[in-house]
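User: Let's play a game. I give you a shape written as tokens, and you guess the letters that built it. Ready? Here's round one.
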């Protein structure tokens, strides 16, 4: 998106932003304090992190939230 803006291609930047916004909405959904655990789950699904360990008082997310994140990554075109 940044490269599109730097090129002055604001239509492409807007399209990328619209594609990624639902993923951001999932990551920062209430309770917003869980965004760290959700971000780690997304990064693990993308193959960037090996584990999703969070330190107390944070708690890992449940399977339902993992599925929501996976669907959001797929909808954003980041996972097959």
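Assistant: Ready! My guess for every position:
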């Amino acid at each position: 998106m940044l490269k599109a803006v730097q090129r002055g291609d604001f239509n492409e930047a807007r399209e990328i932003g619209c594609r990624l916004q639902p993923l951001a909405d999932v990551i920062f959904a209430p309770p917003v304090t869980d965004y760290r655990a959700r971000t780690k789950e997304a990064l693990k699904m993308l193959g960037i992190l090996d584990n999703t360990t969070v330190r107390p008082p944070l708690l890992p997310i449940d399977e339902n939230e993992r599925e929501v994140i996976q669907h959001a990554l797929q909808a954003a075109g980041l996972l097959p």
